[in-house]
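Design review, sub-item: ligand-bound model
Attendees: FS, YL, KQ
YL presented the inputs for the S-adenosylmethionine complex:
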Amino acid sequence: MSLTFDHVTVLGTATVDALRDVPAGWVVDCTLGGGGHSELLLESLSHVRVLGVDRDPQALKAAQERLCKYGPRFEAVHAPFGDLSVVCKQHNISKFVGVIADLGVSSHQLDTEDRGFSFRYDGPLDMRMDPTRGQTLADKLRRTSKRELADVLYYFGDVRASHRVADAILAAYGDGVRGTSQLADCIAAVLPRGGKIHPATRAFQALRMWVNDEIEQLERLVATVPYLLSPGGVFAVISFHSGEDRVVKQVFREFARGKTSSFELPHRKPLTPTPQECAQNPRARSAKLRVLRFRGASAEQEAS
Ligand SMILES: C[S@@+](CC[C@H](N)C(=O)[O-])C[C@H]1O[C@@H](n2cnc3c(N)ncnc32)[C@H](O)[C@@H]1O
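KQ shared the predicted structure:
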């Protein structure tokens, strides 16, 4: 049975433009999702092949159905992108001409009740991007301390009342709450009302990032990719969270530092969606695209 996968690709044209001049070879799409960015690349850049990576088997299935028309130019891999070096070895690819990552969850994941990402439904306390492995949110809540949970809420969700919210979550879990909308109600009950977004939004984002080790995955990715690029290769990352953007910005700046660096930043500032894109797809509003380009090692660097 074919799978309906609703997700509107963010910064698609800007991403393709960033990779337009790469040489022929493999591009890895680290966050394949519904295959939106991959399809744009396969359509627009006839000299590249795409290796699509996702930790979510449902996303892989949907993307494979969508992209099988490209034959051997497209391959899909079930893996976390933090393991990209392992993926390279398994696929006998030593260098990429491009690497893209469009971080976070897809609309499909958010809108699928039984995945437990959203408080719009009363889904299970799960939130794993890969439901075949790892601890669910319920598993983590069973084992955590109030201190750890408060840190998660503060650092990943910028939740100011992190201790109060951590208390509310642990009390709700202790009282037998096992559904996402019930949990959101318990969080909202200890936070001030008002504002445009649901009071539990930031806490839910933090819990999701915790369950999926999202910052650690990103740190591993950005530390690995620059060494996997062939000359002229490009690394493009779209983030939606200030903590993630900070990680990308710092690592990219570090690689591109100094006049003799083999890397360059084609854009000093991150690229952001146009007002039209934001109007058509409100999810795009907080997106930032950063690009790092590998010029190629100089003779001295090759020798050292
Ligand atoms: C925003 S969606 C990508 C949407 C896609 N670019 C498109 O336009 O259709 C993010 C996807 O990345 C996957 N993902 C997030 N973190 C991951 C990780 N560490 N390893 C592998 N996949 C990851 C999620 O499962 C999700 O399917």
